[in-house]
Structures are given as structure tokens and as C-alpha cells.
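Annotated sample (chain length 193).
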Amino acid sequence: MRKTHVRLPSPAMLVALVALFVALGGTSYAALTLGKNSVGSKQLKKNAVTTSKIKNRAVTGKKLNLHGVTAPNASELGGVAASGYEGRAMWALVESNGTILAQSGGISVQDHPFPGGYYLAFPSQVAGKAVIATASAWDGTNGELAEGSPCGSSADAIECVHGSNTSSDAFVGTVDAKTEAPENATFYIAVLP
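Output written by the structure step:
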């Protein structure tokens, strides 16, 4: 008969196996000895529950007591009401003759010195924001193109020769789509926050 050698595990393997059994035993012990709802606020260390440990959608508006939450007042915000920090789109529908037909508020046409050229003033900064202008078929015209640009001295602005040329101004140019010649046209303009 042939004798077979049984190879014993190395000391490192034995240490790893002992560590594994201790870890599994500790988890099993905790699972078996801790009863339901046995861990409460007294057992938790301060700042132990962080955002990453809270399941998505686990904390809802119904679970929060919002009655004790207060917003800062205008004096704490440099004299500006909290709503003043909210980004809002500014928009206007401008008729081909330069009359504002509808708007979000505070927008005026400063000048309409030549066909297809409109200089507008806005109630807040336009420079650095997305300015979108598009021709409108509101008055029965169609086929015109509109392009809007902020005025002022910033890198993304053009120097406007009419109007006040500040960062709260914009220029809109409208042209005939076929000939690309300047032409008066009704247009929408929007400035996104």
C-alpha cells in the first residue's frame, strides 16, 4: 500500500482561518443577541449617522419637522431677500417695430436705430448667461433669423454702440433667412439664469 502525505496548512493560513471564524462568530453573536429596536439614540455616537449611511428617500418631508426651520432675513443676506438669490429666466416678446408685447418684467427696448437692430435693457445682469433669441411668426412674418448677444465689457459680450452698454443690456439682430439682409422681425429673447 502506498502512503499518502496529508499536507498541513501553513501558519499564515491557520491565522487567517482563526480570524475568519472570530469575525463570523462576532457578527452572528451581535445578530443573535441584539433584539429588534434595541439600538437607539443613546447607543449612537454623536455624528455617527452621515448622509452616505441614510438610504435614498428614507427621510421624507413628512418625517421632518419644518415648523422650526427659519430662513435668514434680508439683513443677514446683505439686504437682499432670500428670493433675490433664486435664478429666474428673463424673457420678452418684441414686435418688429420695437414694442414689447409680453415679458417677464423690467425689460425695455432702449433703441431700434436701424432695420433688424434692437438694443434692450434688462433688470439684472445678462453678461455671462445664456442669451437665446429666436424669430417669431406672431405677426404673420416668417423665415427671419434672430441672434442675441450681451453688451458690456466682459469677454462674452459685444460693445453696444446704442443704449447704455452695460452688463444688463443685450443686442438682438434679425435678418431675412434667404438674403441674410437686416430686416425688422418680431422675436423672442430669453436670458437663462
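Annotation: The longest strand covers residues 169-176.
Annotation: The helical segments are 11-33.
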